[in-house]
Amino acid sequence: MFTIPVGDLISSYTGDNREFAFAGPIFDGYYEDIRFLSDLEFAVSIMTLDDGIYISWSYLKTTVEYEGKKETIDLAPFDRTWKIKLEKWDPDDISEIDMRSQTIDLGPVIREEIIMECCNSF
Question: CA nearest 115: which of 40, 21, 31?
Fold first, then answer.
C-alpha cells in the first residue's frame, strides 16, 4: 500500500526530488496490532542521495487504537534514509532499497512511528 517506485530518482542526479501525499482510510488488518479510527494523512519529500533516497515527512496524522487505547497521532516532521546497499555500520533506522523492483516501502516506518508515539503517551 505504501510502496513507492524510486527507479527514476535512483537513475537521476543527487538532489533530484519529488513530493508525495496520502490521505485516506486504512483497512482493518493492514497492521495486525494497529487499528485506524480515522483516515491516515501524511506528506513526504523524496530526495536522491549519492547512495540512496532520503525521505522527509512534513506531517503524519491519524487516530488509532493500539493495545486497547485510542491515540491521536500528530507527528512533528521526521526523516528516514534508504540505501542502495546497506553497510554493516549503518544504523538500524536505515533501510535498503528493493533494487529488483526499485521501490521503497514506507509501511514499516509509518507503523514504527505510530507505535513510538503511542508508547510515549502511555
Answer: 31
Q: What is the span of the domain harbouring residue 92?
A: 3-121
Listed in sequence order, the residues at least 6 apart from 83 whose beta carbon sits closer than 8 Å to its beta carbon are 49, 51, 52, 90, 94, 95, 96, 97
Q: 34 pairs with which residues across the strands?
A: 31, 66
Q: Where are the beta strands (DSSP E) in 3-121?
A: 3-5, 17-24, 34-36, 40-49, 52-66, 69-75, 78-83, 94-96, 103-105
Q: Taking the complete model, does pTM exceed 0.70, yes or no?
A: yes
Please give the tally of structural domains in the chain.
1
User: How do residues 54-86 score in pLDDT, each as one tens digit?
Assistant: 999 999 999 999 999 999 999 999 999 999 999
